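Researcher: Next sequence.
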Amino acid sequence: MIFAAVITASLLSTAEHPLQPQLDRFFAGQKSAAGFQPTGLKRAAYLKLVDGQVRALRKYQKPDGDLPDPVDGRSQFGPPCYAHSVATLAASGFSTDPELLASGMLAMDFSVACLAKGKAAFRDQHPDFFTYPVMLAFEQFEQVAPKERLAAWRKQLAAINPAKTYAAYNKGDNNWTLVHTAGEYLRSLHGLTDCAYVGRALELQRPHMTPPGLYLEHGAPFAYDAFSRYFLTGMLQRGYRDEFYRDACWKGAWTSLLIQSPCGELPTGYRSAQHLWNEAELAKVYEIYAAQYAQAGRMAEAGAFKRGARLALASMQQWLRPDGSGYIVKNRFPMAARHGYEGYSVHMNYNLLACSMLCAAWQYADEAIEEKPAPADVGGFVIHLSDFNMIVANAGGNYVQYMTRGNGKYNPSGLVRVHLRGGHPQLGYSDGILRAALPTTNRVEVLEEAPAQVRFRCGETVTVNAEGVTVATTAPIRFPMLVFDGQEETRVTLAGRTLRLDLAGRALQAVVTGPATATWQCTGKRLKHRNGLVEEAFAEGTDYSLSVPKEP
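Model: Next structure:
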């Protein structure tokens, strides 16, 4: 039975972490973190969210087991993720619904048959994304599916020809190779193939790993850093031996924990940002490292990773539609609007991808580990990730992201995110807007780095402390207000130098503290934004100090 963490090799490393000074400050602050409150979430919360999703999406299943999207009809990789989700619900005992189990096995039939037929069987050209969730499903179905069906699946899974199946076979361009390679590794564990191709494919991927352990591909999307490490960490946890990737993934796990928002979110940046599955991939990685540290008897580290996983899950719980399915992007528009979606974002497959990831997180979650403060709670550091053109700073659980060089398509240079502990993550600076871009600069000066306050200068000076965030700049202030989230209008109050936003019971306030003549004005023009519709507020003049206090 593969229900609990199966530790076959240590994922922990003795390598030097390039962010060790920031980690040291975190550990010093972890012991005395004030006001820490555990989420109260338990392991079963993963499966509760998954159960609601699959029951909402099951009604779209076709007689052959396929699960096309209810909006545009695309299937992509929904069927194998659905099969994995249902298999986990059934094998865990969370669901005893025989009809749900039957629908999961039907999705497995469809998925395995596609893989056995090869590339031509995939109408939506995503064969690389099938094998990993299919193999995870197979392992869970071993507990609940008839032996004859398991034997048929095994025969078809042994017939997969990687060269004739995968779109990214033997390529090193991006994360797709890692996705199918993780599936090939699981096939090798079950005696369905050898491991020769796995080693060759991982060699091709090494150049993507940066010194802090993050995976870098075109545009520097944080979503696909965590996505890639989701698969790599899963392979390592199941016993794959590779010192380079062990060290890189260990570094990446700590780096990503350091830059997680106090709202539980993955950093924004470039494509696929603010998609709901962003946090699901974090949950699995963090649960694996929590279990690893607990096994080593290092409970402070284990508790920090457990906290990161539960913050990610708590973030996801806020983005469920009334039917139980998720909002694909962090806004509340109807699914047919596809608001904030990428061209490849699909309601069916991205909800089910998140479910598959949560099932993997549940599988490795150790309920005995207690939450302890994570870097998101403690702060006290400024991190410049030069490969990602990003600065992340946190003090006492108040957090900013600042782009040193905007990517020209999604995010501007300058301040792109302000998340305050207990605040509304999307109301103000959440993703940046290109109209508000500042000149780019590669010069970053860390002026102060202490638990109570951090300051850095990058064209303008940013201060983060318990009171909130302050920006001192000579450029005109441009503040992106979320005025409509797809469901509710934000109440905007302008009172001279003070701007207040109220939405869904939470508020954000921005104050222009200089010059004396500056007052807030609004453009009156609404712009499309991943989180809904935004409008710029601005204040004319020079030598500004913009304060975003924690308590409006």
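Model: The domain at 44-364 is CATH 1.50.10.10 (Glycosyltransferase). Residues 424 and 506 are 6 Å apart (CA to CA).
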